[in-house]
Write a sequence for this structure.
């Protein structure tokens, strides 16, 4: 039987967080590989970056060091820059080619 | 199972289902809204791990800014609806890759971190600020310059090209358009 002290103790199993991050990352991999729409591919990349952030924060709490949280902040900043550039490129491609399906943008394919 | 674990399992189930629905949705706007659900649940996980500042940064930047950007670009590109137009032909291979990565990661996690527990301690925003500005000043400045460069670059890439030769070109069709309207009127007067 679980005592009340166990229920109220501020602890959590580390593998739960890591498996949650693994689920998010795998869903992101599936989305990047299976989607044709470039905006959906970018959204799947955001999902993978979020999985990495969950890992960083989980290990930051596990090791009682703040470095993981600071790196998660940097990753969020770089993700914002990446999605800004990515969506600008997508809109430019749509203006030029009238499509954003990534398998129809094959000018460099031999 | 502690109270934190119960709350986390609720968050994780909602977030995981949202992530899977995000990559399988047939409607692109629904996919963007599932992205909101997943990102909010990840923010709740940060809050549960006592990373309060990071949780609000997640809500502000991801749920507030990035999802709005994604929705705007979905509207601007007139994205179609339907699984056949949104997915390509390698869906089975993609599922195999995703499931393989998930199985491998779960195996490694269970082997390496099977019985580990996190004892949660509250982290104040002041501690995060001290850590950034004491240990990570140079990366912080580099990341700020990177963000500025990326946003200026996004504006430069996405705006329409307006060369200096356009005003004379615009004047020529105006004259050409006015002449036929003047011509018949003068011809109709006598």
């Amino acid at each position: 039987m679980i005592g009340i002290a166990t229920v109220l103790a501020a602890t959590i199993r580390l593998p739960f967080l890591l498996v949650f991050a693994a689920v998010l990352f795998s869903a992101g991999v599936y989305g990047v590989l299976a989607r044709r729409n470039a905006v959906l591919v970018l959204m799947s990349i955001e999902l993978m970056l979020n999985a990495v952030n969950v890992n960083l924060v989980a290990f930051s709490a596990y090791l009682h060091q703040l470095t993981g949280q600071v790196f998660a902040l940097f990753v969020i900043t770089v993700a914002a820059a990446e999605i800004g550039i990515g969506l600008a490129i997508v809109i430019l491609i749509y203006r030029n080619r009238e499509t954003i399906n990534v398998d129809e943008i094959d000018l460099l394919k031999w | 199972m502690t109270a934190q674990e119960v709350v986390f399992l609720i968050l994780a189930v909602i977030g995981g289902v949202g992530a899977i629905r995000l990559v399988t949705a047939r409607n692109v706007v629904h996919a963007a809204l599932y992205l909101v659900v997943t990102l909010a649940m990840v923010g709740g996980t940060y809050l549960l791990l006592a990373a309060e500042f990071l949780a609000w940064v997640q809500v502000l930047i991801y749920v507030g800014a990035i999802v709005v950007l994604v929705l705007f670009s979905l509207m601007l590109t007139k994205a179609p609806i339907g699984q056949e137009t949104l997915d390509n032909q390698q869906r089975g291979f993609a599922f195999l890759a995703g499931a393989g990565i998930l199985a491998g990661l779960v195996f490694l996690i269970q082997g390496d971190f099977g019985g580990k527990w996190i004892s949660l301690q509250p982290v104040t925003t002041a501690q995060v600020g001290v850590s950034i500005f004491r240990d990570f000043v140079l990366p912080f400045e580099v990341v700020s310059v990177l963000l500025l460069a990326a946003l200026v670059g996004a504006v430069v890439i996405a705006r329409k090209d307006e060369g200096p030769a356009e005003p004379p070109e615009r004047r020529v069709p105006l004259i050409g358009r006015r002449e036929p309207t003047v011509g018949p009127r003068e011809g109709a007067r006598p």
